[in-house]
Structure formats: structure tokens, C-alpha cells
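assembly run, all chains below
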Amino acid sequence: MEGTAKYPEFNDLEILVKQGSDEELREFLGLVHPADIADLVEQVDEEGRRRIFTLIPRSVAADVLPEIEDHVLDEVIESVPDERMVHFVEEMDTDDAADLLAELTREDRRRILARIDASDSEEIRRLMGYDEETAGGLMQTEMVAVLKDATVSETIEEIRAQKDEVENLHFVFVVNEDKTLEGVLDLRDLILSTPERKVSEIMDPDVISVKADMDQEEVSNLFLKYNLISLPVVGDSGRLIGRIWFDDVMDVIEDEADEDFLLMAGAGEEELEELSVFKSVQARLPWLAITWVGGIVTSIILGHFEETMKEMVALAAFIPIVMAMGGNVGTQSATIVVRGIATGKIDYKDIGAFFFGQVAVGLILGMIIGMATATFVHFRHSAIEFSVVIGCAIVSVMGFSALVGTFLPAFFKRIGVDPAIATAPIISTTCDIMGIFIYLTLANLLL
Amino acid sequence: MEGTAKYPEFNDLEILVKQGSDEELREFLGLVHPADIADLVEQVDEEGRRRIFTLIPRSVAADVLPEIEDHVLDEVIESVPDERMVHFVEEMDTDDAADLLAELTREDRRRILARIDASDSEEIRRLMGYDEETAGGLMQTEMVAVLKDATVSETIEEIRAQKDEVENLHFVFVVNEDKTLEGVLDLRDLILSTPERKVSEIMDPDVISVKADMDQEEVSNLFLKYNLISLPVVGDSGRLIGRIWFDDVMDVIEDEADEDFLLMAGAGEEELEELSVFKSVQARLPWLAITWVGGIVTSIILGHFEETMKEMVALAAFIPIVMAMGGNVGTQSATIVVRGIATGKIDYKDIGAFFFGQVAVGLILGMIIGMATATFVHFRHSAIEFSVVIGCAIVSVMGFSALVGTFLPAFFKRIGVDPAIATAPIISTTCDIMGIFIYLTLANLLL
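ok done. output:
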């Protein structure tokens, strides 16, 4: 199986779901990775879903459900009887169970929570209490923790006891009697030690941990910086309350990028997940409305300069180039600031130096483009004053746009709003209005 | 240490590098995570770098070097004597060593490769032969592989033998006599088995593997989909040749997002890493040049409509709104296609359905915005024909822009070019030109 765990061919499976016997389908589903079964579930109809969830074992279903796209989850839940769903949720990791239940309607959620094992349901409820986009929202409560003065053989016993519960067991956390986190133990060091050694002697005491309220973007930046596989989450008193496993963080890195990417363009993140014309229109309309208001303001400004334009219609011919140049430079600067702040590659404290750099880039680019345009205008219209006006306008518009593009996201960050809200529609609308104002004012003064 | 492995305070360390005794500095560096030492190395001057690399042990230096930003690497190498650098490279993982050497000047590289251990240097040379952005460029040759019929105790012996060489040892690969990959063994299952059991009985035979030439974007999508920690890389014959560890893939997910993000805006990826006005200007100028040519073409088109505009100067006042609307919708569609193809969330095979969806969204948004604008024009200019023209123009421009925004990246993907090359400057320039042409042609026909 190179590059894929799909076997047999995906299309065959879809046919099998429709036409195969239970026997055949069960056998083939057994050969397929849970993530691929999730893809299959998304493709087939309600009857197909019912068949799949009847035929796969609970433990597999517990791995399939977290991989299903949110927007089909409701329909999937509908096609599974409550009784089976309860078993699935009990089998799932607590973080996945909490995420799944959070997606359900309040009614479905209550019904399922009422039926699952009391200690499980309490843990899931507790996890659901954390904001989804924080460390608490990412952590699971399944983990192996041993006391500092346990021995290697006691630790192995503990792993044996928990092996069915904890799926990814590559590290054991070490705590003291108060459950305060003291260190971490790599399974490799456990294997290589004699049975009677104390855990405290072979553990790594330099363990990085976070509080449950840390934003997931910061969490993912920690994983990236320190190459972490697993990150313990502690309460206010330092007590170990859960752990974050790297695979959820990989998803966060991708999701945060998706989110910023689409928000910056003034589109909706969900447009990547689901093809819904209605939802796309809904997501984009507010941003386009802002652009529209900007366009109306621009048209009013242009109305005020009607006399100037009547005298020299050629002025109007260069409105697009002034707008396009300003909009591009502004969006470039905004993109760099938004992405740089999100990934921690731009230190917000150094934003001052960054600010001047961006404006300098805008002005230099403005001078190059301004000169080129002035030269063109001079040869085409043989009007020296007009070519001076257009040249100066482009330099000022591009410098100003770089300033707006840098300032707006930094300002949003400052007031505690996601900098990516400084979307391309907002940036380019601001740049357009100011650009046209600058251009025509210069024209009015100099011509 | 919550949320950070920094201790003591970072600023204190900078002062210590300048003024502290060797004794003090060595002690404090011992408390700091290699990733933080890398940050420190980036901050201090040449003399400071020399001190740091003299005082930290080889094994720490081997972890610090891969964390240093590329653009300061050359300077860092300058401040470390060849002799020490050779030791560092020998201590590094082969993938990190290959990446590091690839960043050096040809001369430096040859000098260092000539001095390191022959078997190491051969492996590093071989890894450097792979394209940096493929599975081969991400893999390392350090791993533990055992024969299928080895026992658990033999495997533990093998781990003991390799423990200093292989840093992240959570899985053991299982191969047959030809070194063909047969399965993978979780360390947990090793711990829980009796010493005399055969590896083949406890291994997982369903192991996903890739060929060395797979693009890193596909590799990262596999990690994301199947929640992998480690991925074996095999040669054409199925022979195990290396493994990819998840931390490099996390970096890939972030870097690929950075790259697409900035490319889409027509800026350079390196603008996130380094504050260089010159390099920023260089990266952006080509895209702005395209925009400029588009602007000039637009001005020529507008020149042809000079008579129309002279008769009705109000026409010019609505050029910006037509341009802004088209540009925004086009960029929104392009962003979704580029990001969707990169993350595998949009299946290129389904692009047809997606295409119609995007155009539908553009047309619906166009009708809403077009009606709003027509209403505004009607009340402000009380010219019914003009309001019809502007309304129709906006609908067609927005529909057309959604089409361009979807088509261009899909087309680039089709011809084997990175879809992100369909940058905002290209999309909006195309939309601007067509938008203005459509607008004024309609005006000419209907007014």
C-alpha cells in the first residue's frame, strides 16, 4: 500500500455498499483504514451509512466518527441507532467524544450523554466546558500517569492495565502525590531500564506544560517550536488534567491556516468543507457589502471632481491603475502581517520596525511604478503636468496603502481581535477611497 | 515552565552572552531548550555566536543548528570553526545534516563533507540528492529495523544498540531478508510482550509507506488523514530506505500554507523570515509589473471610450465599484480553489461541479450588489437607462470574475504548475480589464 491505505479500490467499495452481501462488505471494510471508511460514509446514502455502522466493530467506529466532516455528521448520527451510538461514544477518546457531542443538537446530545457510563459522561461534560479553540478543547483525559517513586516494573503494569484505554502511548507522565506534574518518561527509556529502577531516576524533569485556557494557535506554535509529540495540560495548581496529542495539533495548524486564508479573502472557512451556494453567498456578502459601500463613497468623491474630469477625460483612464496598485500593495502588507502574527514569525513587539520597512517597500515600489506610468503618460498624452500628477499620485497611494495594510491588522491585534479580520475587501476598499482622493486632489492642484 | 521552555528570562540571556563568564553562560545555556538557544543565536552578534557554540555540548549543538533560520545560517557557520562544525554535523540526524549542508556555499559544503566520517558523508550526500520538497528530502536514515523472525528480546537489544543514534524511537520497522518493509511495531506492544515472542506475531502488517519522489504536500496530507507519527519511505523494489518523522511534516504544513498565502498575495515567502526592504521589493515587483501592464491596457481601453465618457462623466464615477466587485469575487474563488487543491479538500476530479457552484455564487452576489447599485444610481442620477447599465454590468462582471478566479488556478494545476501562481494580482488584473470592457460596452450599447 504505497501512499494510501485504500484497498480495495474506492469505487468498488461504493458499489459493494450498495450491492454486496453483509459478509462481503464486512470483510472488505476490515481491510480499509478508518479514515477511508469515513470518506466512504460521506459518499454513500443513508441506507449505506446504516449498513456500514452496523457492520464495523465498535472500536473501528470510534476511529471513523472523528474523521467525518462536521457538515454530514448530523445526517450520519440520524442513521445510527442511539444504542449503538452510545457504545461508540464510550469507546472514543474523550476529546473526540466531546467534539462529536458538541456538533449534535442539544436534544441528541442530552439523550446520548444520559445513557453512557457515568464517569465517562462526567469527563466528556467537563471537556465540553472548555472553549473549543483552547488547549482544554484539544486535550484528552486518557493518559498514563505514575507516581514519582514508582518502579519501572510498576509502570509497565500500569501500562498493561490501561493499554486498551489509551491509544497512543509513547510517553508516561510522572506526578507526585498531589498529582502535580513532575516529569515525563519516554517508553524507550522504560524498555532499556532494569525493572527495579525508580521512575524519578530515568524521567525527564524538563517537561513543557500549558494551562487549559491557552489559545490553540499558541499551542500549535509550541508544538512547532519544540517539536512536541504530546503536551501535558495542567490546572492552576499545576495538577495534571489532560494531554494534547500531536495529531489534533496538525489539524489545528492546517485549520488555522485555512481560516486566515479564507477570512483574508473575505470568504468563509466552511466553503472549503462543503459545496453550498447559499452558504458561500452568506459568508461573502458582508465583506462585499463593505466593498460596495466603499465603491459608493468613491463614486460620490468622483462626483465632486466632475468638473476636473470633464476638462480632462484622460484623468478617468488612469483611475484603474491607481486603484489596482494601491490595492495590491496594501493586501501584500496585510497578508504578511496577518500570517506573520499568526505563526509567531513576526514578533508583535517588533511591529514598529516592521511598519517602517513595509512603508519603505511601498514607497520604493511606488517610485518604480510611478516613474514607469509617468513615462507612459508623457509619451502617450505629451502632457508633462499630467505625467507628474500620475507619478506623484502612484508614489503616495502605494506608500499610503502599505501603511494601511500594515496598520489595520496590527491595530486589530492590539485591540484583541483576530488580525485576519483586516481582510482584503477592507484593505482594498480603504486603499481605493484614499487612492482616488489623493489622485484627484493632486490633479486639481497641479493641473 | 508553563507554555515555554525559556528559563531564565530571554533578555537576561542576551546580557549574559555579552557580559557573563564562561562558567555562568554554560550553566544557563544548560537550562534552555535547544529551540530557544537557536533564537538566542539569531539575536546575538558574531562574537556571541562563537561563545555559544564553544560552550554547548555537541549533542545540543546538533539540535540547535536545525532550528536556526536559513537567512542567518551562513553567518552562523562563519562563526564556528570547521573542526567543531564537523563534529556537530556528525552528531546531527541525517536529514537535518543534509538540509544544513544544502544551505551552505559549495565551498563550505565540500570542506565539511570531506572531513566527516565516510559512511555518514555518503548517507548525507545521498539524501542531498533528493528534491528538498519530496518525501526523500524529508526522510532520515536513522531508524531501527528488525527482521520479521526476530524475537522481542532481540529487538530490545537492537534498540539498546541504536539508542544514541536514533532520537525518536517510538516505532520499530519490520523487514524481511531483502529489506522489504513488512510491518511496523509499536514500542508499547514490545513492552507488553514476553521476550521470546516473534516480532511477526505482534507487528502491524498494514503499514502505509511512500516512494521517495512523492511531493511533500501529498506527504503532509497523508500524515493529516491517517494521523501518522512516522512514515516509512521505500525504494522502487519496496526496500525500506528511510523514515519521515512527524515534526518535519508539521513544518511542511505550516510552510506550504505560508508559501501559498504569500504567493497568492503576490508577495515572497521569505518576507516572513527576514526583514529586507530590498528582497521584498524584488519579490513583489514582478507581480506589480503584471498589474501595471493590466492598468495600462485598461487605460487604453478607457481611451477608446473617451467620447462615451465625455457625454456622461458619471460613467467614470462607477468604474471603481465595478472593478472592486469583480476583483473581490475573483480573488475569493481563486483563494478557495488554491487552498482546497493544496489541502486535498477539493478533489481536482470534482472541479467541474465546483466550477458551476462558484459561478452561481458570483452571479447571485452580482444580482444582489447589482440591484443595490442600480437602485442607488436611479435615486441619485434619476437615469433609468444608466441604472440598468450599471446593474447589468455588475452582474456580468461578478459572474465572469468568479469564473476567472476558479478557472485560472484549476488551469495551472492542469498544466502541472502550482495553482497558487494564479495570484491576486493576476486574477484582479484579468477581472479589471474584462470588467471595464464589459461595463463600457454595455454603456455604449444601451445609452
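Chain A is about 65% helix and 5% strand.

Chain A touches chain B through 119 residues (CB under 8 Å).

not gonna interpret more than that til we talk
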